[in-house]
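[job 4417] fold queue: 2 targets
>>> target A
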Amino acid sequence: MSTAAATYWEPLWAQGRRYRQLDDAENRLLEDHLGPGRDRPALDIGCGDGSLTRRLAQLGYRTTGIDCSPSAIALAAPQGPGPRREPAWRCMDITTDDLGVLPEPAYAVITCRLVYRWIDDKAAFLDRVRHLLAPGGAFWVVTEISGRRATTDPLQGLGITPAQAETLTTGWSSVHTADLDVLRCYALHP
């Protein structure tokens, strides 16, 4: 795993830090844009405590959750999705590790929730995602947008800039967006 990523995230997850949970509005958007899994493979990048990974499993996807933090994977792994298939969990950094260790060569759905903003080399990251995305697949990105928080909010600088959003959306045949307060959801198709 990337030393810089692990150095930042591991202590936060080890201390029990929790981040924005999925809510009904985001779940509806996810279902509307990705549809039923029908046992197709899905990859959740930066899975954290596994909530989105488990949600994809509930929708019928054969899911794998990856995170660079061993503590995040430890939090995610013991929690099952219920009556459906248990997700696979991998501790790895999507930006630096060998993609060949993933259980599938290609994924019908790749998700990246609250992670894109933290990726240093966004173009290289997007190339890796495109390499893993199956033909006709979908890349689902949820990220905060810069300037949506009050200027007095200490988290005001967490969003991506318009230039970073353009990097994200360039080169896809289809781009659909939906807004959720400070967040924007992107459904990107090759």
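>>> target B
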Amino acid sequence: MFGKQRASKADEGAMTGNELIEAVATQQAATKSDVKKIIDAALAAIADAAARGEEVSIAGFGKFKVKQSAAREGKNPRTGEPMTIPASRKVVFQPAKALKDKVNS
């Protein structure tokens, strides 16, 4: 899931997937390839659960939930003509209190 990622000007300061893998490998004294496999498997499991509409809760980190958005009327940005935006599902993340506290400390 993590390929070559290049930070754009808007993403300066953002951690890339490869940087995350390197940080975890360093903290856990593990190889980067082992950490990459574990992270890829975890993300795949989260994606599979989300596709089934299930909530995934990670203690101290947060919850991934699936929310349903109803169909609604909108406008075509090019022509201004009215159009129907179809209903869809989206994945949202709700951080845990521990994560919020760490970020705000």
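[job 4417] complete. Note on B: The longest strand covers residues 62-69.
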